Amino acid sequence: MSNEAVGDFGLIGLAVMGQNLILNAADHGFTVVAFNRTTSKVDHFLANEAKGKSIVGAHSIQEFVAKLKKPRRMMLLVMAGAPVDSFIEALLPFIEPGDIIIDGGNSHFPDTNRRTQYLASKGIRFVGTGVSGGEEGARYGPSLMPGGHEEAWPYIKDVFQSISAKSDGEACCEWVGDEGAGHYVKMVHNGIEYGDMQLISEAYDIMKRGLGLKDKEIGDVFAKWNKGVLDSFLIEVTRDVLYFNDDDGTPLVEKILDSAGQKGTGKWTAINALDLGMPVTLIGEAVFARCLSSLKAERTRASKLIGYEGRVPHFEGDKEKFLEDLEQALYASKIISYTQGFMLIQEAAKSYSWKLNKPSIALMWRGGCIIRSVFLKDITNAYRNNPELENLLFDDFFKKAIQKAQPGWREVVSKGALWGIPTPAFSTALSFFDGYRTKDLPANILQAQRDYFGAHTFKIKPEFASEKYPEGQNIHVNWTGRGGNVSASTYQA
Q1: 3-state secondary structure of 490
Q2: What would the pLDDT profile of 192-202 be if each residue is shown by its tens digit?
Q3: Binding site annotation covers 133?
Q4: I need a surface site. Which of 250, 344, 380, 423 has the fewest CB within 10 A?
Q5: Is 106 annotated as belonging to a binding site?
């Protein structure tokens, strides 16, 4: 087999995502070199799906590297964690300074930070890229979110923007930022996906138990919503799921165990939000809702022991009007979730000293990915109109949308509480909105409590500043007459 350098692009990892990305790149005129640790997979792929296409196989790492044109562009689509590091080490003896290694797995962004720095010290340009869109996205156009060693971007841009999804003619792929920024943005994308899915599930529950609708009728509602402001991939998926009948003619969804799994990216987003002190409450609730769902046996016992004693939900009134309210509640809560996601991204850019491109991030999510929706066009416009926009809710479009949605949103959350139907994501979105727009929150009580029991100090409001309580200073008060006058801050070990 010839080891002549013919490949424009190399990919390691022939699971379904890897195979589909290779076929996608070949469709766009690139010659792709394919390698898999189990080399029989390479032969099988070449003899079947890749037959007749500009795809060549390699049966060793050395052969894989030899078949690529310089600077070599090599992508790993292997399991996140140790496998990525072991493939990097396997490549290092054969590659040269200036070559580019791309990790397209769901890696945790601190690992990407580490790998970028480590490989830069060896003259290798490392890129960590988020890939979203599942199997079909990989084959016909995913959303790609690359970050890392910025010098790599001009060399990989043609491949990445060719194979990515397009939205209004624009590629859903742009350089995100330094080090682990690409994988960070993918992590937040997945967190938002958790939030969107939880909100849709709550809307389904309200329709099913609150309004007494059948699955087909709920599917019809989602089909209608998919033609309006909620037009999105996940609404479409939900419609299809609700229409899908098993062989016995009953909806399959009714037979599925209500215990949700998770792979960890939503949890990473929630943990990172806590680390950065950002109130990303909706994604946090979506993660906890999955955790609660997994306590199925315990919930079954609880339903018998502490079942809701109140009235079984029985809706009286205008169902069509309530469904409009529910649509607005879902839309407003979704706006809050994305607002929180972008607040987190903004804070990460500050904390990690990354240059992040917010309009491009919204554009990357417009097509190809799981959270793709028409709504992301409005976010792209908001950041293009004002790249320094402090908060999405300050944009005129979103300000008007959320004001319009408020009455229906409050109605739905109230009904959920009265009926005993949990709406953790709808409720937390509304609470965040009400908290965010409140000038004076009750945190003054918290600060007084903390100073009372732990001498943790407080600051005085500017309008009450005086000689006794100077503005901007940390003040401790002897609340009981028995405590001392030394504040906690002066004796921190």
Answers
A1: helix
A2: 999 999 999 99
A3: yes
A4: 250
A5: yes
The C-alpha angle with vertex 434 and arms to 428 and 435, in degrees rounded to 5, equals 85
Instruction: Give the DSSP letter string of 151-195.
Output: GGHHHHHHHHHHHS-EETTEESB---EETTHHHHHHHHHHHHHHH
- Class for domain 186-437, per CATH? mainly alpha
The tens digit of pLDDT for each residue in 16-64 reads 999 999 999 999 999 999 999 999 999 999 999 999 999 999 999 999 9
- DSSP three-state, residue 123: coil
Domains of the chain by residue range: 9-175, 186-437, 442-492
Catalytic residue annotation: 186, 193
Residue 69 DSSP label: P
Q: What is the pLDDT of residues 85-138, one digit of tens each?
A: 999 999 999 999 999 999 999 999 999 999 999 999 999 999 999 999 888 899
User: Residue 194, annotated ligand binder?
Assistant: yes
Length of the chain: 493
CA angle 272, 276, 280 (to 5 degrees): 65
Phi, psi (degrees; rounded to nearest 5) at 382: -60, -45
Q: Which helix (DSSP H) or strand (DSSP E) does residue 101 occupy? A: strand 100-103
The domain made up of 9-175 has a fold known as Rossmann fold (3.40.50)
User: Residue 474 half-sphere exposure, CB side, CA atoms within 13 Å?
Assistant: 11
71 cis-preceded (ω within 30 degrees of 0): yes
Residue 400 to residues 297, 363, 427, Cα–Cα distance (Å):
44, 22, 20
Strands 170-171 and 166-167: antiparallel
* 27 closest CA partner among 136, 125, 205, 162: 162
Alpha-carbon distances of 295 from 121, 203, 208, 290, 374, rounded to whole Å:
47, 21, 22, 9, 35
Contact 103, 76 (CB under 8 A): yes
- Residue at 363: amino acid letter: L
Would you say 141 and 24 are in contact if contact means Cβ atoms under 8 Å apart? yes
Please tell me whether 341 is known to bind a ligand.
no
